[in-house]
Amino acid sequence: MAEELQSRPLRSEKPGVERVVAGGGDDRLQRGSENPSFDGGGAVTPGIVSPVPQRSGAQVGGGWIEQFADAPDVLKSEPEQATVVWARGMAIGGGDFVTMAGPCSVETERQLMETAERVAAAGARVLRGGAFKPRSSPYAFQGLGLDGLKLLAAAREATGLAIVTEVMAAADAPLVAEYADILQIGSRSMENYALLEAAARTGKPILLKRGMVATVADLLRSAQCIVSYGNPNVILCERGIRTFETATRNTFDVTAIVVLKEISRLPVIADPSHAAGRRRFVPALARSAVAAGADGLIVEVHPHPDEAWSDGEQSLTFAEFDAMMAELAPWCELRGARSCVLETLP
Ligand code: PEP
Ligand code: MN
C-alpha cells in the first residue's frame, strides 16, 4: 500500500497551501497575501510538493513512528513542520486558533442565518452545517440537500464566514464543492475511498473526521489517500471514538490530538460536540483540545437546541457558545502570541 501510494505522482500543490515551519514569531500570517512565501526557518518551496519526508526516528519521535509508514506524505519531515491549509483567505494550522461553529443540520433560513450571525459575532471564522446528513436511522431527517447548500452560501454572503459542510457520496462532490469552502468527510465515511478520491479531486480543502473505530494510523492513511489523489489541503479532525464508556456519546481522545500534532504536519481540529454528546461537557473538552495543541474547533450551536432536527442534546445555545468562546480566549493566548487574532486575513 505504501509503495503504491508513493509511486503515484503527486500533482502540483494548489494555490492556497503552504508548508511552513511554525514559530519564530512569523507575523506574515497577519499581513500576508493569499499565498505568502513562508521561510520561517524550514525548507519551503512554494508550489512544489516536497518529496516523501525523511522519517528519521530521532526527528519525529522514535521507532514507534514506523506504524505510520503507510502515510509518509502527511508526517513531519522535521519536528516544527506545520502545513497551513487556506480556506477563503483564512489560514488553518498557521498559529491562529480557528473556530468552526453552527448547527448539526441546516434546517431553515432563519435558523441558519441567526446562528451564522451569532457565531460570527462570538469569534467563529467558519460556519458548519450539514445539508447531506449521515443518519443512523432511515426515519431521521436526512438533510435539505441542494437547498441546504444554497442556504449555506447565502449565510456566507451575509456574514463573510467560510463554509464547511459534509459530502456523503462521491457523485455529490462536485456539487458540494461549488458551495462549500471546506468539504467535510464524516466519521462514517473516513474509509470510503471512492468518496475520498472524488472529494480530493475537487481541490477544495478537506476536513477529514476520524472514524469512530479508527486508529490514528488509520486516520493518517486516509489523509495520505487524499494527498495521493493530488490534494494536499487536508485538515484532520478528532471527534471521539467508540469505547466501553457510555457516560458520553464517544470518548474524546485528547491523546490523539497530542500524537497527531507530534507526528503529522497537518492541522488538527477538535470536535468536542460529537465526542461529548451532551452540551454541558462541550466547553471543558474544548479547553482540553486547546491545551493539547489543536489548531481549532468545530462545535455545534443551535438557536433552540431542544427543537433541533439533529444532535440537539450536544448543541450549545448562543449564550453557551458566547461563554465558551470568552472562557477559551485566555487558553488560546497561552498557545502563543498570534493564537487568538481574529481578524480575517486578506
Ligand atoms: C456532524 O458533523 O454532524 C457529523 C455527523 O459528524 P461525525 O461524522 O463526526 O459523526
Ligand atoms: Mn451532528
Keywords, separated by commas or semicolons:
346 residues; alpha/beta; 3-stranded antiparallel beta sheet; 12 helices; 33% helix; disordered N terminus; binds manganese (II) ion
Explain this structure to me?
This protein is an alpha/beta fold and 346 residues long. It is built from twelve helices and eleven strands. The chain has helices at residues 2-7, 28-31, 57-60, 109-121, 146-159, 173-179, 193-201, 216-228, 254-263, 272-276, 282-292, 318-334; strands spanning 17-21, 81-87, 90-92, 98-102, 126-128, 162-166, 182-185, 206-209, 234-238, 268-270, 296-300. The strands form two sheets. Strands 4-5-6-7-8-9-10-11 form an eight-stranded parallel barrel, surrounded by seven helices. Strands 1-2-3 form a three-stranded antiparallel sheet, with no helix packed on it. Strand 6, helix 6 (173-179) and strand 7 (182-185) form a beta-alpha-beta unit. Helix 11 packs parallel to helix 12. The chain is globular. The structure holds phosphoenolpyruvate and manganese (II) ion. Phosphoenolpyruvate binds at residues 104, 130, 134, 186-188, 209, 239, 274.
